[in-house]
Amino acid sequence: MKSRILVVDDEPDIQFMVRVILRSEGFEIVGAANVEEARRQLAEDDPDLVLLDLRLPDGDGWDVLNDLRSSGRLERSPVVILSAHASPGTISRGLDDGAAGYVTKPFIASELIDAVQTHMAHG
Amino acid sequence: MSPDNLRANEDEFRILVDNVVDYAIFKLDTSGYIQTWNAGAERIKGWTAAEAIGRHFSIFYPPEDIAAGKPERELEIAIRDGRVEDEAWRVRKDGSRFWANVVITALHDRSGRLRGFGKVTRDLTERREGELAKDRFIANAAHELRTPLAVIIGLSSHLKNPKTFGDPDFPEMVEALSRQSIRMRTLVNNLLDLTQLHQGRSNISPVDVRLDEAIARAARMLTTPAGRRLEVRVEPVYVWADPLRLDQVITNMLSNAYRYGGDHITIWTQQSGPDEVTFDIADDGPGVPVELAPFLFEPFKRGNSTAAFEGSGLGLALVKGFVESLGGRVEFIGNEPGAHFRITLKKGVGR
């Protein structure tokens, strides 16, 4: 079965770009443009990976990460943060808070693919 | 020079120093107690001469600096090196802080014995705030450029992969690349325009322009989104404006209304005085969020857009800059309940 990835990002063209890049590697992609949509998707089932933007229109990505951590779902659905915030402080906070990886925008296709393949849940 | 002349010279020099208002200039004794005071010292630090003279100069330092022994250390350095310069926070009489440039010079008599210190302080708070605002502006601009750049870098690196040639989304990838490149161009152009406005060289050459024609042109240029209605009520009227900048102003106002406003948008013009013409734009949408209203015309302040793609975040700042450079003004009239903006321009001389 195809691995499923949830992409949480409010920029339609970023969503689109991540989708076409990962689909060409054989992944199945579902999208969410804000915290509410991400929560709705996560209530339905467990993706094999979550690509999470931090700055979202109705809140921030940290809330989604904290939800997953406090409900013990990070092992089943690891989170890779996909953010323009590239300061060492933000990156280490992300990893401390339970994110498996961190990709800073802008990134080239292979960086995204590498991060996804490294951190994808195997199950 | 005779002793009398010398004395007269010294008096003149003291009067000169006493009346300097941009610099605090005063003397300390060998242990740091204040001996003289000038107008600038009173203005910058808030103490009068009567209050200040006789006090120790450490009263100007924040508590943490006093605890760390900074005032004494600065005097020691001044004795050792002849002078010490520092740029840091200092405290006024009322407890408020200001960003100060301080130079302390050791004063010696002819035999080389220390007689005290001269101290010159400048208040650089405004300059520092300006520098911080500029830093924030650059950080915001970089952040805005990063999103289109992310799409361009990500997609172009992906398109090098031959697999993409057969992808049914190939045309949309090229379309997204083009769209984000254009967005980046708009942002860069807006940044340059705004910077030039700040520097006062905005390439503005006002002439008589038909406002109603400029509005019609902008309305044609921007496609009205599906389900929206634009109502234009204008009469032939001339304004004194730069045609290119006027087009930019109207286009920005209209695209803001499409982006943030309601379904029904109205534009009307009016002669509001013998020398003034107003251009109003209003819609029936949710209006401007109250928390945003005070900062509407500042760069990178914006609400949640209903449009698929963000603008540059500079639209209203540019409108304000252009309109003011033409001797006009732009106002946010209020939420009625949709947003209502008014631009006032000088009436043209033609007809």
Protein architecture, described:
The longest helix of chain A is centred in the N-terminal third of the chain and has 12 residues, at 12-23. Chain A has helices spanning 12-23, 35-44, 61-70, 88-96, 109-119, and strands at 4-8, 28-32, 49-52, 55-56, 59-60, 79-83, 101-104. Chain A has a five-stranded parallel β-sheet with strand order 2-1-3-6-7, sandwiched between helices. A two-stranded antiparallel sheet of chain A has the order 4-5. By secondary structure, chain A is an alpha/beta fold. Helices cover 42% and strands 22% of the residues of chain A. Chain A is globular. Chain A is built from five helices and seven strands; from the N terminus they run βαβαβββαβαβα. With 351 residues, chain B is of the alpha+beta class. Helix content of chain B is 42%, strand content 24%. Chain B has a five-stranded mixed β-sheet with strand order 6-8-9-11-10, with helices on one face. In chain B, strands 1-4-3-2 form a four-stranded antiparallel β-sheet, sandwiched between helices. In chain B, strands 5-7 form a two-stranded antiparallel sheet. In chain B, β2 and β3 (97-108) form a beta hairpin. In chain B, α7 (170-198) packs parallel to α10 (315-325) and α8 (211-221) packs across α9 (243-260). The longest helix of chain B is centred in the middle third of the chain and has 35 residues, at 125-159.
**Protein chain pair with the most extensive contact, residues per chain:** A-B, 19 and 26 residues
- Overall pLDDT score of chain A: 92
Task: Specify the overall morphology of chain A.
Answer: globular
What is the structural class of chain A? alpha/beta
* Overall residue-averaged pLDDT value of chain B: 91
Total strand count of chain A, please? 7
Topology as H/E string of chain A?
A: EHEHEEEHEHEH
Biggest sheet architecture of chain A: 5 strands, parallel
Based on CA atoms alone, the radius of gyration of chain B comes out at 30 Å
Distance between the termini of chain B: 74 Å
β-strand amount of chain A: 15-25%
Topology pattern of chain B, helix = H, strand = E: HEHHHHEEEHHEHEEHEEHEE
Strand order of the largest sheet of chain A: 2-1-3-6-7
Structural class of chain B: alpha+beta
- Spans where pLDDT lies below 50 across 5 or more residues of chain B: none
Uncertain runs of chain A with pLDDT below 50, 5 residues or more? Answer: none
Q: Tell me the helix content of chain A.
A: 40-55%
- The share of residues in helices of chain B is 40-55%
In this structure, how is the largest beta sheet of chain B organized? 5 strands, mixed
Q: Strand tally of chain B, please? A: 11
* Radius of gyration of chain A, CA atoms, in whole angstroms: 13 Å
